[in-house]
Amino acid sequence: MPKHHNYSKALHHNIFRIISEAADELSVDAYVIGGFVRDHILERGDPTDIDIVAVGSGIQLAKKVADKLPKKTPVKVFKNFGTAMLKADDKEIEFVGARKESYRQHSRKPIVEDGTLQDDQNRRDFTINALALKLNSDGFGELLDPFNGYEDLKKKIIRTPLDPDLTYSDDPLRMYRAIRFATQLNFIIEEESLKSISRNKERIRIISKERIVDELNKILLSDKPSKGFALLYKTGLLEKILPELTALQGIDEVEGQTHKDNFWHTLEVVDNISENTDDLWLRWAALLHDIGKAPTKKFHKKIGWTFHGHEFVGAKMVFKLFKRLRLPLNEKMKFVQKMVLLSSRPIAIVDDNVTDSAVRRLIFDAGDNIEELMTLCEADITTKNPKRYRKYHNNFQVVREKIQEVEERDHVRNFQPPVSGEEIMETFNIKPSREVGLIKDAIKEAILEGDIPNEYQPARDFMLKKGEDLGLKVQNQT
């Protein structure tokens, strides 16, 4: 136990005094436990989520606290779980009765009984989350730390309170949480715990995809996601959830020719992009940008290893992967697909001889996401050679300048052809048909190719000529 074991200063918020009074009046022992205590000791700011454990009825304590608050405060009661929740100022406070849990083999839902504080701390996932501060007036702020969680915090160690095989087998989601905390806090998972994750990886099948993805997203949103994905890979958990990613691992050699290890390269790209964006879906795009390389990898005697069409194949794989993991199949998925599909395009327009039409097509295809695409491409530079690194970054600067120059002149980002489908139908007196689509596409292609400017009159003249080629007659216009 640390010498400075009283943390009453952490409990400066008025809500803790109110909980203390309510607990004393009910003659119930009450404690704040878990993340609030951990983050205070780590000086990670003032957490807004607070977990309160009552040795008795958590619901009763919550109601008593609500009665004491100056403003009328509703209490959400979850009777089946024996928990209650209320909001006070900016704090969300959950109350639960101290409990002990036992698990069945095929479910992570425990059989719950009333228990002591010690029982409640035993059921916690990690020693650093089992720290509790007493809230009763007798011993207010006293730290209760039965598993030396304080020492583990100081030594930056993730360890389970009980035998890790028991902790992880009971609730296999804890394996992902261990890796997530190690990534977020930059801690090390204690050796026995890490081995236990590998031993228990098959148990993950009883966990819903949504819960796993929630942990994956938190790993992806951390400062250095590669740490988490490397641990997921090392323990065998990654293959269970993202086999498309682990398929990229390894280097093949034929006739002395090798290719880079696309798995470890991908993790570098994710770290690079994380320095420049907090956008979860752009980080997902970085994680998945090369997944098409495993199924498209071929060796040719004359040119060596190729990955032809890997962006197209990868974009199609994104849909299957999102569907399997129950990730959103909406515009977020379409954005990730778009980034994967276009991920190699900007580098193709570095060349001095590149035509304006290639630049226009990239701007048109990327639309409002051109900046995100450039961020992804720049993150994709993982060379350790300083000269080459500078050269590639300078190349992308050239691409940015070309994009800006062409866009300012031609305004093709998200453009709609200046002549509408309605005007085409009216001009030739035709109904919605294949011909309308052909003329619209031809106008779009002519603008992107630079054959006509992106203006109404040249587009209309082109429409008339195209209609004539298709055998359509212009109606007499008065």
Automatic annotation (TrEMBL):
Pfam families: HD, PolyA_pol, PolyA_pol_RNAbd. The keyword Nucleotidyltransferase applies. SUPFAM superfamilies: Nucleotidyltransferase, Poly A polymerase C-terminal region-like. CDD domains: HDc, NT_ClassII-CCAase. Residues 186-247 form the tRNA nucleotidyltransferase/poly(A) polymerase RNA and SrmB- binding domain. Transmembrane segments: none annotated. The keyword Nuclease does not apply. Residues 265-348 form the HD domain. Keywords: Magnesium, Metal-binding, Nucleotide-binding, Nucleotidyltransferase, RNA-binding, Transferase, tRNA processing. GO terms for biological process: tRNA processing. GO terms for molecular function: metal ion binding; nucleotide binding; nucleotidyltransferase activity; RNA binding. InterPro entries: HD/PDEase_dom, HD_domain, HDIG_dom, NT_sf, PolA_pol_head_dom, PolyA_RNA-bd, tRNA_CCA-adding_enzyme. Its cofactor is Mg(2+). Coiled coil: none annotated. Residues 30-159 form the Poly A polymerase head domain. Belongs to the tRNA nucleotidyltransferase/poly(A) polymerase family. NCBIfam families: HDIG. This is tRNA nucleotidyltransferase.
